[in-house]
Write a structure and sequence with these properties.
624 residues, alpha+beta, Cathepsin D, subunit A, domain 1, 4 domains, ten-stranded mixed sheet, three-stranded antiparallel sheet, 20 helices, 18 strands, flat, disordered N terminus, CCHC-type domain-containing protein, Znf_CCHC, zinc-finger, zinc
């Protein structure tokens, strides 16, 4: 009799039966233990969703796979076992369309390729790679920027495949005020991160306060408007065409002479002539900014920083914003001879500074150029005909592209767009409507960011600091009858109690303790529900955690320029009350007795407990 164990038909049937058995989730003891072990490690199921969620699920699952020993086929079986919902329906369709033999031999890498083609296609990978290429720090802290840098770098490994490229890419995305303190020859990625984290100002970048002053001085797009007003006089250097806020010369010392800048006398007794009264040599003439139809705008890299650039075929020279070089901390050179810039209205201003060999990168190729320093408004650079002609630029106004055909270099093409105009209307009057205030649903900004305005739907997690009510022995339960309320207040009391019950802040009680409630009118006219715990406070042991001194807080704010606040609607509700102390929080109302599961006001110890909690949670952010 032939040995049927080696029969191809029986082998195929065995594989088919094995595949069907495993795909029906009838896993054997080993795979069952592996699934349980992975679940304990934190492996989750996937039911379908956004592309980045699918990629993160694969990424996290492969991390857990490193902790188990099994074959690639078994890994695929565990992965398909973790699918549910829409993802499971998709896999069932794929499984039915796959031959049994191929299904039984399908390993993890094959499944991952099929899965990512479905839930994380190439177009999504390209988006993530573009997001990494365009990643800059902006309003993030250095820690947040590094975290996002590491997270996105796996989508563009070719850009960080060497330590030098990784360090340069990380430094290039830092804010300029940190980047110029971090940059160095031969610096590694780890050293760059350490230097950035140790900088005094590693907080989110603040807009250079001098830039706002340029908006009123010059505009670079609108037809017929001037770049600078020659009637404006600088109170620092005495020159015309700019203000002291953007003056590039050293600041005049307080108490110095206005004419010569020396100490010891005032301008009315100065023997030296005023430099501003002596006209400079007649400067060379330049034309800048013709009309709207001769310009396009785009973004390029200048000094390793993303710069907003105006390409102007009507400008004879190229310029750099005084605010931009101030932000970068650059020191411009003196021009060999003064230049005067004229506009279509034939108004002019005198320029004396230049930044030589400014590195302007177009698709990783540097096109350096000398840029004259000019007070600009909304742009960092203006690239005129001198730069465009030097690098053989071909401007296609119809396609809005610029092609560079430099000899012995690859052809480079960049996409531009027409200058954007503000899309929001300006109002010259403020109108107060007598209609009722709009509801939350009618506010556009709330509807646009609904995930930010989601309400609290569950109790807070267990935290290191808990709120307890320790009594002075031999304290007895205290219960006080409810205060009298007006009919309007009683109606509001019903509404607020129902809201607190729905949120899970309170629950019905049968405690022997009980405090009365009352309403306090807020500034906006609404009523705040307060519980009168004064009698309970008298028999409560005081918390010893220190409160901050207001003088110390003001000292810490010295030198700060931007302030913000966090208006916590349910700020004190972030603490859970100890289970054994919940009955002590009971309060009496006309509609029954209730007790608090979260901290409520105005307990004697609430501020100290809350400050201790916030100090513990925000320990690493105290100095931010």
């Amino acid at each position: 009799m032939a040995d049927r164990r080696n029969s191809p038909v029986d082998a195929e049937g065995f594989v088919e039966a094995f595949a069907r058995r495993m795909e029906a989730n009838q896993v054997d003891g080993k795979l069952g233990r592996l699934v349980t072990h992975l679940k304990n490690l934190g492996a989750t199921k996937f039911s379908g969703g956004k592309p980045h969620e699918a990629e993160e699920w694969i990424y996290n699952l492969e991390i857990h796979f490193e902790m188990v020993e099994c074959t690639p086929v078994e890994l695929r079986m565990i992965g398909t076992h973790s699918l549910e919902g829409d993802a499971r329906f998709w896999w069932d369709t794929v499984r039915r369309a796959t031959p049994p033999m191929a299904l039984g031999l399908m390993d993890w890498n094959t499944f991952k390729g099929i899965f990512l083609d479905k839930y994380f296609p190439q177009v999504e990978k390209d988006k993530k790679e573009t997001e990494f290429i365009q990643l800059v720090q902006e309003k993030m802290t250095v820690t947040e920027y590094e975290t996002k840098f590491i997270k996105l770098s796996r989508f563009a490994p070719h850009m960080i495949d060497t330590p030098d490229k990784k360090a340069r890419r990380f430094i290039g995305g830092l804010n300029s005020n940190i980047r110029r303190l971090v940059t160095g020859l031969g610096i590694t990625y780890e050293e760059a991160v350490d230097r950035a984290l140790t900088q005094k100002d590693n907080r989110p970048w603040k807009q250079h306060k001098g830039r706002a002053a340029f908006r009123g001085v010059a505009t670079t797009v609108d037809k017929g408007k001037e770049l600078a007003n020659p009637s404006i006089r600088c109170f620092n250097c005495g020159g015309s065409g700019h203000t002291a806020a953007i003056c590039l010369k050293p600041r005049r010392l307080p108490g110095s002479c206005f004419k010569c800048g020396k100490m010891g006398h005032f301008a009315n007794k100065c023997s030296e002539p005023n430099q501003a009264q002596n006209p400079p040599p007649r400067p060379a003439q330049l034309n800048v900014i013709a009309f709207e139809n001769t310009v396009m705008e785009g973004t390029l890299i200048a000094y390793s920083t993303h710069a907003r650039i105006l390409f102007d075929t009507g400008a004879s020279d190229s310029f750099i914003s005084a605010a931009f070089i101030a932000t970068l901390g650059l020191i411009p050179d003196e021009l060999d001879k003064f230049l005067t810039v004229s506009t279509p209205l034939e108004r002019s201003t005198i320029l004396t500074k230049v930044c030589k060999s400014c590195p302007i990168s177009v698709l990783d190729i540097e096109f350096p150029m000398n840029l004259v320093v000019l007070p600009l408004g909304r742009y960092d650079l203006i690239l005129g005909m001198d730069w465009l002609s030097k690098y053989y630029a071909i401007v296609d106004c119809h396609e809005r592209t610029i092609t560079f055909s430099v000899p012995e270099q690859p052809v480079q093409k960049i996409q531009c767009h027409l200058p954007t105009k503000p899309s929001y209307p300006k109002f010259l009057a403020h109108v107060e409507s007598k209609n009722p205030r709009p509801s939350i649903e009618e506010i556009h900004i709330v509807n646009s960011f609904q995930d930010v305005f989601q309400g609290i739907t569950h109790l807070p997690p267990q935290r290191e600091v808990e709120f307890g009510i320790d009594l002075i022995p031999p304290a007895r339960p205290i219960s006080i009858t409810p205060y009298r309320m007006a009919p309007k207040e009683l109606k509001e009391l019903q509404t607020q109690i129902k809201g607190l019950l729905d949120l899970g802040f309170i629950r019905p009680s049968a405690s022997s303790w009980g405090a009365p409630v009352l309403f306090v009118r807020k500034k906006d006219g609404s009523l705040r529900l307060c519980i009168d715990y004064r009698q309970l406070n008298k028999v409560t042991i005081k918390n010893k955690y220190p409160l901050p001194r207001i003088d110390d807080l003001f000292d810490q704010l010295r030198g700060a320029q931007i302030f913000s606040k966090i208006d916590l609607r349910y700020g004190y509700h972030q603490l859970l009350v100890k289970k054994e102390d919940i009955p002590k929080t009971a309060f009496n109302t006309r509609y029954g007795q209730y007790e608090c599961k979260r901290i409520a006001t105005p307990w004697l110890r609430k501020k100290r407990k809350s400050i201790r909690l916030f100090s513990t949670i925000g320990k690493s952010q105290k100095e931010m």
